[in-house]
Each structure stands twice: as C-alpha cells, then as structure tokens.
Design brief:
mainly beta; Porin; two-stranded antiparallel ribbon; about 210 residues
Length: about 210
C-alpha cells in the first residue's frame, strides 16, 4: 500500500524540479518521456476451483516499475512499461506462498488538453506476464484428487485512464488507474484474473 512518505517524496521531487525549470509544459510531437511509478495492485481468484476446500487468491500488494513513452503527435503516443508486483497467494489451507509477477506492456496512449500543464489521457494495450511462485500449490481439487500447481507465463491486456501534471517543461507528476487482465500465471486449473492497479509516479520529458 502507498505510504505517506512515498507520496510526500514524489510531490517534493516534483516541486523542487518545478522551481528550477520554466513552467511552460505540454505534450509535444516527437518528444520522449521516462516515468518511474509505484502503487497498489488488487488481486483476484487464482484458480478456477477450490484447493483443499479453499479458493486461492492473488493478494493485493505493491507494484512498481518503469515506463518509456514516445509521442508521435501532441495527442498520440506509444508507451512501453516494465513492471514488478511482489505479491502472494493467500486463502490456502496452509501458509501463504510468495508469488512475484513481472509484466511487459506495449500501450497506445491518447492525450487530451495536450497544450496545457494538466494533461488527462486514456490508454490500452497488450503485454506479457511471467509468474514466479516460491513453491508449488498442493492440495485436493474436486474430482481430481491431489494436485500440484506451479507458476507459468502468458499474456496480459490492460486499459486505463490517468493524468500528467507538468510542474515544469521537463518534469511531470502522474496518476494512473488501470484494469489488467491476466490470462495464465499458473500451469493448471488456471482462472483468468481481472485485476486493477492504482499508481503514482514522476516523469521526465526530453
């Protein structure tokens, strides 16, 4: 979960940058942006059936990463994102199991009000997700006896809305809310996950 220190730190960096650079910010054609972000990822049921009488669930946890964007025009851009979520599988018959997810996304982004310092946007795209389960999930599944479930990789889709606030011509603060679909992160009895992410970050335009 985001802490007050994290939010205050991001705001402080942005404010300091805003004091050192002229505030005539906007999204411009052929510009590039690099963003760092941190936030919260909200999980969903992990499997399509109960294991030992309980439904395994991907826990809510911290997500963080890097984003690179290229703006073809003032409105349209392409963004590449590399993210990491160090989460866990909960609601098991035994103790929780650590489950780290790494995502890589390619998104199209459309900016509104691009000539102003406050720039809302929408985005959508496709990507790849790799799961790293600390140890297999084991237990009894209905009609199958004892099962062993390990990590896997698959594709992910995401779509969202957000806003960039340019505190200077080169520095922006960013809020991002997005839905994420995860197709396959365990190797059997997998369930398609419908998750959500809320992040804040700081970006640099060049």
């Amino acid at each position: 979960m985001l802490t007050k220190k994290t939010l205050i730190g991001l705001a402080t960096v942005g404010a300091l940058a805003g004091n050192t650079l002229p505030a005539q910010a906007q999204v411009t054609a052929s510009s590039q942006e690099v963003h760092v972000y941190v936030g919260e990822a909200f999980g969903d049921d992990l499997t399509d059936r109960r294991i030992s009488g309980r439904m395994p669930e991907l826990d809510d946890d911290v997500t963080f990463g890097l984003r690179y964007g290229f703006n073809f025009t003032e409105a349209w851009g392409l963004e590449l994102s590399l993210g990491r979520t160090n989460t866990a599988v909960t609601k098991l018959a035994g103790r929780d199991i650590d489950f780290d997810l790494t995502t890589f996304d390619v998104d199209g982004i459309y900016h509104f009000n691009s000539s102003e310092s406050f720039v809302p946007y929408v985005l959508a795209g496709v990507g790849y997700v790799d799961g790293d389960l600390d140890r297999p999930i084991t237990g009894a599944a209905p009609g199958m006896g004892t099962v062993r479930i390990d990590d896997d990789n698959g594709f992910t889709l995401n779509a969202g809305v957000g806003a960039k606030w340019f505190v200077s011509d080169l520095v922006s603060l960013r809020l991002d809310l997005r839905y994420r679909y995860l197709d396959k992160i365990v190797d059997r009895l997998d369930d398609s996950l419908n998750t959500f992410e809320t992040t804040v970050g700081i970006g640099f335009k060049f």
